[in-house]
Structures are given as structure tokens and as C-alpha cells.
Give the backbone structure.
Amino acid sequence: MTIASRDFRELRLDGVSRGFGALNALKDVTLTIQRGEFITLLGPSGCGKSTALNCVAGLLPLTGGSIWLDDRRLDQLRPEDRGFGMVFQNYALFPHMNVRKNVGFGLAMRNESKADIDRKVEDALNVVRLSAQGGKLPGQLSGGQQQRVAIARAIVIEPPLVLMDEPLSNLDAKLRLEMRAEIRRIHQYLGSATIYVTHDQDEALSLADRIVVLRDGTIRQVGTPAELYSRPAHADVAEFMGYRNIIRTEANPGSNGWVNVGIGGAEIAGTPLEGVQRGRAIAAIRPEDLSPVGNGPIVARVETAEYRGRDFYGTARTEDGTELYFRSEQNAAVGEVLHLGADPARVLVYADTAASRPAELAPNGIAA
Ligand code: ATP
């Protein structure tokens, strides 16, 4: 018997841990996912994303903690008894079975009647817009179509939860964009919950209701895409969310609640986070928020510049050797000297602690 039912309130991971020998791949992860939510697990390679997903799926037993669907404990159940739909990066289709048979496989294993299987398979193929391809073999389909078959196979069992592990990684950039929209549409249509693993922040920002950022097997931050984009809670999360300027510096109290930080020999105002007021700090600025302005305090010479259609992105170096990523609406030529500035609201200043420091920043502050 499976517990598959979309009629649930929440899935809860309660202090979930998973070790591999001496390695703690997942450490005491607690997370609640509401029905209807689209959650992405985001983080660098090896941070424990797939391990977390496989623990929820039942493919990996836990070494600590528990998993609950409302008040039913799941972590002792076999994967097939949890009734979750899974979609993997490599599609995992049966090559000798046509699309209909692939999609209906799970239902056939449950001994459902042929009439029910036919009806549900047709419904699922409709949802992924593949009704016309039902008689084809996977090898006769494009990568995007094969991934749609895998999605149809995951949703045909009407799962409370759909688990996706980097499902778009094997597709080219254009198809990835199209499939993102499809996945979002399918999720909204189904009304179940989705946990989606990715290391691509754009994918996470565009798909998720909430993003869970993992590092070294622990949750660093949970938030909406807007929160993660504009207000990462820690410097390492900022770095992962595209704040390419991550600068070791010193903070001092400034006016209007800002803190002042030194960057490339200049002093600029920033937003204090983690309660930082003075002392060792890390400033984080997106390239698009650091631009040439009339009286920009940071003087830097352009080393690289590339045209991106509407503006220029590049790197510039200050006299003290700090490399900065900037954006310019005007032509920026290599060798040119720029006067860069940033809105203090977009200069995030964090305490410089071992826990918050991005991995690339060695303890001495020199980028590895
Ligand atoms: P990626 O994006 O590269 O897939 P990930 O964030 O999904 O990374 P996991 O696959 O969850 O990371 O792995 C987390 C850690 O656990 C890594 O250090 C990995 O080497 C280790 N690990 C995963 N599976 C096993 C296993 N079966 N045996 C031993 N170590 C493992």
C-alpha cells in the first residue's frame, strides 16, 4: 500500500542526518515544506543536495532524525511505499518501451486496471504536451521530450511530492529555459509539492517559492528568491547568489545607520548585516551594482571588458591591487580609469567569521 495522496498539509524533515563513513554529508537538517510549495535545494557541488533528496525519496536510509508527512512517519518506509514521483538528470527511461509503456510502468506495477492505466497515462501525456508521441521509443525523441516523458512518469502516480534532481542539466540553454516554464506550469497544475535540486542560481530564482541554500551538509539560509537575491544572510550565501565582489575589509560605524568600509583605498557606505558595526568584515557587491559615477570614490583601471548588448561588464583593478567586477552603461575600454561607486543599500557588509567566510577566501583574506 502506498500513502500517495495529495491531501496533506506539510512534509517535515526533523533533524535529518546522513553520513558516509566519517563524512557527514547531511547534518541535522530541519525543514518544513507546505503543500503546493516549490522548494529548490541550491548549493555548490558536494554540499548534500542529492543526499537530502535521496533521503526524502527513501533511496538512502537516514543516520539520524526523521521525516514526516503530516503525522505519518516516512523514514522507515520503502521508496515505493512513500509514493513520491522522481525525475533524474539522466531521464532513466526504459529504452525498449514506448512512451506510453514508460509512463504507465509504475501503475502497472501496482496492478491497476488497463482502463485506468490508459486513462491516467493519456492525462499525464496531455499535461506534458506529448500526447502525439505516445507510440515512440525514447531514442526517437529529443532530450527535452525525453525529460517530459520522465516528468509524466513521475506525475502519473498522482504523488503528494515530486522530487527532481537537476532534471535540466543535460539540455541545451534554450531548451532549459523552455523546460523551466513547463515545470513551473506543471507544478501549478498539479498542486502537489516539489523539491528541486540545482546548483544553478538562475534556475532556483526563477522556479522556487522558497530556496534552501545548503553548504557542507547544513542549511545556510531559507528564503524567497527576492530575499536571497537582495539580502543574503551570510557572506558565503551572497557569494553563491552572484555577489562576485567579495572583499575582506574593515568596518566602522557611519551615518544614517550605514557602516563605512574600505575598498580599494576608498571608503564607502554599506548596509550592516549580522550586527556588524566595526572590525573585520566582508563587503559583498554585485557587479551590476558597482558602476562608474561622476564622483565615484573607487578609482580602478579596466583590465577586461565585454559588451553584453545593453551595457558592459568587466574587471578593474585598484591601485592597492583589489580586483573588482563592474557594470558600465558607457563603453569601458581596457586601460581606462573608472571612478566607481555603489548605492549603500546594495553594499552588504558581513562580519568576517570562519562560519560565514566563502570557501575561496583563505583565512588571510587572499582569494585562493
Ligand atoms: P552535486 O551537485 O555534485 O551532485 P550534491 O550537493 O548533490 O553535489 P551529494 O551528492 O549530496 O552532493 O554529496 C554530498 C557529499 O557526500 C559529497 O562529499 C559526496 O562525495 C558524498 N557522498 C555522496 N554519496 C556518497 C556515497 N554513496 N558514498 C560516499 N560518499 C558519498
Notes: The domain at 10-229 is CATH 3.40.50.300 (Rossmann fold). Residues 294 and 339 are 7 Å apart (CA to CA). The chain has nine helices and 20 strands.
